[in-house]
Amino acid sequence: MSEATKMKAGTSMIVTNPGSRGRYAKSAAVRQRALEACVDAFGISGFYGATMKDVAARAGISYTGLLHHFPTKETLLLAVLEYRDSKGTQVYFEASSSIEDTPANAVRAMLEVAVQNETEPGLIALHSTLSSEATTPDHPAYEYFQSRYRALRQFYTGIFQVLASRGESNSTMSPEALAITFIALLDGLQVQWLYEQDRMHMRAVIADFLEMVIPKE
User: Model confidence over 65-79: pLDDT tens digits?
Assistant: First the structure.
């Protein structure tokens, strides 16, 4: 059989098997429902308090169906953390691409992430609950959060170093200390917002902080 024939045969098999696309779409939808249910379950009860059966019930799927997508509670945990990160990363890069590419704007893009976060309190609760719960080395998300905070510190330290070298920062803190403070502000605001959702606006607080540190010309 020639290569061209093989290609045609393969194409024919794909075209004449539309059911596979339907099964894939259904499977992806079930997985998405499980992740969204996990956001609520882990956000409310934490990793240790929530159960796989609880997640399955919230998602409206069978326990066996959940295990098909996530064989263990640990794999579900890592998947939901990646899910949260992917949503925040998408908003951040969309915000970054819509403004001038400068070090200051790389920090200011977090303002749009804060706006998005306020529309999804479940994701804020998930992060706040798990990041606090995972501080012990035996927690399955310990290394994830440890690596995440290290990467964030490195990222923001680099930006604040550039701003300081250009004379564009008003802070007397070192770039590393400023990066640590900024991350603490972001995390702390989310916790406080969960208690006062109607009274607090994270974007405004972050904007005021950044204006104090890196004022616009």
Answer: 999 999 999 999 999
How far apart CA 86 and CA 80 sit, in angstroms, is 10
40-92 pLDDT, tens per residue? 999 999 999 999 999 999 999 999 999 999 999 999 999 999 999 998 888 88
User: Is residue 33 within 8 Å of 59, Cβ to Cβ?
Assistant: yes
At 211, phi and psi to the nearest 5? -65, -35
pLDDT higher at 175 or 18: 175
Amino acid at 39: V
Q: What is the DSSP string of the chain?
A: --HHHHHHHHHHHHHT-THHHHHHHHHHHHHHHHHHHHHHHHHHHHHHH--HHHHHHHHTS-HHHHHHH-SSHHHHHHHHHHHHHHHHHHHHHHHHHTS---HHHHHHTHHHHHHHHHT-HHHHHHHHHHHHHTTSTTSTTHHHHHHHHHHHHHHHHHHHHHHHHTT-----S-HHHHHHHHHHHHHHHHHHHHH-TTT--HHHHHHHHHHHHS---
Q: Binning pLDDT at 50, 70 and 90, where does residue 1 land?
A: very low
Q: What is the mean pLDDT of residues 157-175?
A: 95
Q: Torsion angle of alpha carbons 77, 192, 57, 85, nearest 10°?
A: -30
